[in-house]
Amino acid sequence: MGLLVSCRLASPLAGDPPYLDALLEHLMAAIHGESIAMRRELPCPPPGWIHIPMTRATIGGWSVPECSAPVMSVVRSDRHEYYAKRFAADETDLVAPEQRRVIAVGNGTLKSYRLPNRVRRVERIAWICRGHRRPILQLLRRAKSIGKDRSQGYGRVAEWTAEHVDCDDWWFSRHDAGSVLMRSLPACDELPRDLIGFRRDYGACVGPLWHPDRYTELVVPC
Amino acid sequence: MLIPSDRHTREDLECWRELEAGDRVHGATIDRKIDQAIDRIRSFADEPCYCSVSWGKDSVVVAHLVSIADSRVPLGHLIIRATTAPNPDSKRVRDNYLPTSGQRYVEVDGRATKQHDFARLRSAFGIGRSINGVRAQESGDRRMSRLIHGVATDAVCRPIIDWTTDDVFGYLARFALPVHPAYAMLGGGRYDRQWIRVASLGGERGRGMGRAEWEREYYGDVLRRRA
Known about the structure:
The complex is a heterodimer. By secondary structure, chain A is mainly beta. Chain A is 11% helix and 36% strand. Chain A folds into 2 domains: 2-73 and 123-183, no CATH class; 79-115, no CATH class. A 4-stranded antiparallel β-sheet of chain A has the order 5-8-1-9, covered by helices on one side. Chain A has a 3-stranded antiparallel β-sheet with strand order 2-7-6, with no helix packed on it. A 3-stranded mixed β-sheet of chain A has the order 10-11-13, with no helix packed on it. Chain B is globular. Chain B has a 5-stranded parallel β-sheet with strand order 4-2-1-5-6, with helices on both faces. The mean pLDDT of chain B is 89. In chain B, helix 3 (57-69) links the parallel strand 1 and strand 2 (75-79). In chain B, helix 1 packs across helix 7 (165-174) and helix 2 packs across helix 3. By secondary structure, chain B is an alpha/beta fold. Helices cover 46% and strands 10% of the residues of chain B. Chain B has a single domain, classed as HUPs (Rossmann fold). Chain B has 8 helices and 7 strands; from the N terminus they run ααβαββαβαβαβαβα. The interface between A and B is medium-sized, with 20 and 21 residues.
């Protein structure tokens, strides 16, 4: 028996939606004060060190949560918004000639930039996992928003829901053409022979996903 | 002729098909610029020189122009590793282009500083004079360089310095030359192919204009391997 966890968004999503297990680890770490202690240059604790109410299984030597990657409903728009910074030099003619200075805008403090920020309008994001419904929902209700730039109003969560479903598609989904990969997993011999919908990558499949100690050869959904 | 890659998404390929259709139309209108570039190469290649390539779009155009103007001019490629990682797809452009051109080719695997590595490339040919695909449209520095130095100096010739990005893609489409897969990694239309850099990945240069975000989206695995 699987659990279909979904969130309804009230504002556009910036960046990518999170893995549910990584989000739960983040929330649990914040409760226990571990999110401050964990840094990139420090050794990473073993997978599962931060307990989450979700089952795990071992594949390719990694203990991976039984949870799919985020699945988005129809994307209504997919665009870039930009962070832009520019030294305003439009009215420099008003400065007295002897007071004028050359200012570098190609580097340094006053460097001009225009950074893209991917923003998508999506109504609902869902994950299929195996875990305990009530504690998962209790934890998730602490997540008021998801994605990047949450402080600017992106990714506001209107509602978290979780319901039991008769489905075990957290890693692989059966299809006529083969087994469709549903989340990032280690590239190993234990993967199904008929695996489809993936490409090779290098990164982490177990949280914290940003820590270099977690990096390994992967297959990721595409 | 776009080189396919599993990094392309369906939306990317749809975008690319539309852009390529426009390139084919534009490519038929640049005869004057092509003739001018060939004349520039012929006048510079009177004395021994080589053509420096990175296997980006401009490099492939210049390599092809050189093969038309004077096929004896060899090609040289420096793999820059000092502060950046080489783009893994660049080798595929090389492998697609060279068998059809028959030009002599030298590749130098860089290790030290960029300046030192370029000196090694020059010494590999025993020649200090080179032709490259620098264009004025790419940056303010290059526009200034064009105004000060013109198309060529004693040491360097830039035959397509006054070409636009549309001219370059038009040329590639017209002659069905291999196109680096990175130029179709467009985020389904979110990225402008004009500003995509393919020579290398990572490093600090040009990060502020969205290059870092693009590289993380499409070549995150390469960057993470360097971490």
